[in-house]
Write a structure and sequence with these properties.
The complex is a heterodimer.
Chain A: H1 3-8, H2 13-34, H3 40-58, H4 60-70, H5 79-124
Helix pairs in contact in A: 2-3, 3-5
Chain B: H1 2-8, E1 14-20, H2 27-36, E2 41-47, H3 54-60, E3 65-67, H4 73-87, E4 92-95, H5 107-117, E5 121-125, H6 137-154, E6 166-169, H7 170-178, H8 185-195, E7 200-204, H9 221-239
Parallel strand pairs in B: 1-2, 1-4, 2-3, 5-7
Antiparallel strand pairs in B: 4-6, 5-6
Helix pairs in contact in B: 4-7, 6-8, 6-9, 8-9
Classes of the chains: A mainly alpha, B alpha/beta.
C-alpha cells in the first residue's frame, strides 16, 4: 500500500474503480458515435463526463487539493458533487437542444402546411 | 348585424382562423357559420394533426384548411393561420375555436372596434356581462388571479385573458406571425401585445357551453395552469428587458 493510502485513509481501489468506469463509459459513447446512433456534436457533451472523471480520479493530488478547498475530508467523496454537477450541466445542455429542435420542427411543420395548401389549392378550384 | 356588413364590402380582407384538433363533430358547422357571419370573409381551418375524421370532413365539405403534418398544439396551429394571413395580405384575422363554443354570428362585434375605433386587437370576453355561463369556482378564482396579475404588469384590466375568441388588425397579425407564444398562447400573447403598445378592447360576448370535446383547463389543473402562466409571464417580461418592475 502506498503511503498516501495510510495518511489520507483510503486505498487505491476506489480510484481504480472510477478510472475503470470512466473508460467503460468512454468506450460506450465512442461506440455509439461510430454506429451513428449519437451525433458527434452531442457526443462531445457526453465525453466531457468520463474525461473529467478520468482526470480527477487518476490525479490524486488534484483530487486532494480540490477536496481541501471545498472542505471535504474524504477526498474521493468529492467525486460525487463533481459527477452530479456534470450531469446537471449535460442535461441542461440537452434541454436547450431539445427546445431548439422543437422550435425548428414547428417552423418546418407550419411551412409544410402552408406549402401543401398552395400546391393543393389550384386543383380544388 | 346588417350594418356591420356594409362597413366591410370589399374594402377589407378578413380571415377567420379556426384551429381544430379532433373536432370532426363541430368544425364544419363552425366554419360554415363563420363564412356566413360576414360578407367576403375567408375561412381557414387549421387542422392540428387531428386523429379523428376532421381532415376528411373538411375535404368533403370543401372547406379551406391547413393540415399540419404534426401536432403543434393550439399555439403553433393558430400561428400558422397568422402566417397565412400575413402572406396573403389580410387586414383582419379573427380567431374562433373549432369546438363551437364561440358563436360565429358575433364575429362582427369583434371586428367593428378595429374598423371603427382603430384598436389593434379585440378580445371577446365571457365576463364583461354578468355571466351566462357558470364557471367552476376554481376557474373563476384562477381567472381572477390571472387578471389581477396582468393588471399589475400592464396596468390594463383584461377580464378574460384566456379567451380564444379574438380579432387582430394587420399590425398585430404581423407581430404574431413572427412571435406567437407556443405555451399558454392566449394570456401570454395579451401581455406581449400590450407590452409592445398594441391597443386592446374587450367586448362582451355570449359563449355557448362547448358541445363536444373538453376544455384543456379543468378542475384542479386550473391552479397549476395559473402558476405556470404567471411564471411564463414573468419570463416574457424578463425577456423584454424588464420594462416593468
Amino acid at each position: 500500500m502506498p503511503e498516501s493510502a495510510v495518511t489520507t485513509g483510503y486505498g487505491n481501489r476506489v480510484i481504480y474503480f472510477a478510472i475503470l468506469m470512466s473508460i467503460a463509459f468512454l468506450f460506450l459513447i465512442i461506440n455509439l458515435v461510430r454506429k451513428r446512433q449519437l451525433s458527434e456534436r452531442f457526443a462531445l457533451a457526453w465525453l466531457a463526463i468520463p474525461l473529467l472523471l478520468l482526470v480527477f480520479s487518476s490525479n490524486r493530488s488534484l483530487l486532494e487539493w480540490l477536496a481541501e478547498i471545498v472542505g471535504v475530508y474524504y477526498a474521493p467523496a468529492i467525486m460525487i458533487p463533481i459527477i452530479f454537477g456534470l450531469f446537471i450541466l449535460v442535461s441542461l445542455y440537452f434541454s436547450v437542444k431539445v427546445s431548439n429542435a422543437e422550435r425548428r420542427i414547428k417552423d418546418l411543420a407550419q411551412e409544410l402546411a402552408l406549402l401543401r395548401y398552395t400546391v393543393e389549392k389550384p386543383e380544388k378550384k | 348585424m346588417t350594418e356591420h356588413k356594409t362597413i366591410n364590402k370589399d374594402s377589407f380582407k378578413i380571415l377567420i382562423i379556426i384551429p381544430a384538433f379532433n373536432e370532426e363533430k363541430s368544425v364544419v358547422a363552425v366554419a360554415k357559420a363563420a363564412r356566413d357571419a360576414y360578407e367576403n370573409v375567408d375561412v381557414l381551418v387549421v387542422n392540428d394533426k387531428s386523429t379523428d375524421r376532421t381532415e376528411r370532413v373538411l375535404r368533403e365539405h370543401d372547406i379551406d384548411h391547413l393540415s399540419l403534418p404534426t401536432n403543434l398544439g393550439i399555439g403553433g396551429a393558430v400561428q400558422s393561420g397568422f402566417i397565412f394571413a400575413e402572406r396573403n395580405n389580410y387586414d383582419i384575422a379573427v380567431q374562433v375555436d373549432g369546438d363551437g363554443q364561440h358563436p360565429p354570428e358575433q364575429i362582427p362585434l369583434l371586428v367593428t372596434p378595429i374598423l371603427q375605433d382603430g384598436v389593434d386587437f379585440v378580445i371577446g370576453s365571457r365576463y364583461l356581462q354578468k355571466s351566462q355561463i357558470v364557471s367552476s369556482f376554481a376557474r373563476r378564482l384562477g381567472g381572477g388571479m390571472l387578471a389581477t396579475f396582468i393588471w399589475m404588469n400592464t396596468g390594463k384590466k383584461v377580464t378574460d385573458p384566456t379567451s380564444g375568441f379574438r380579432a387582430y388588425n394587420q399590425r398585430a397579425i404581423k407581430f404574431l406571425s413572427r412571435n406567437y407564444p407556443q405555451e399558454y398562447p392566449e394570456p401570454i400573447s395579451v401581455i406581449e401585445l400590450l407590452d409592445c403598445g398594441f391597443k386592446l378592447v374587450e367586448i362582451p360576448v355570449k359563449m355557448k357551453e362547448r358541445q363536444f370535446g373538453q376544455s384543456s383547463i379543468t378542475g384542479a389543473n386550473t391552479f397549476f395552469y395559473m402558476l405556470k402562466v404567471m411564471f411564463a409571464i414573468i419570463i416574457a417580461k424578463l425577456r423584454r428587458g424588464g420594462s416593468y418592475a
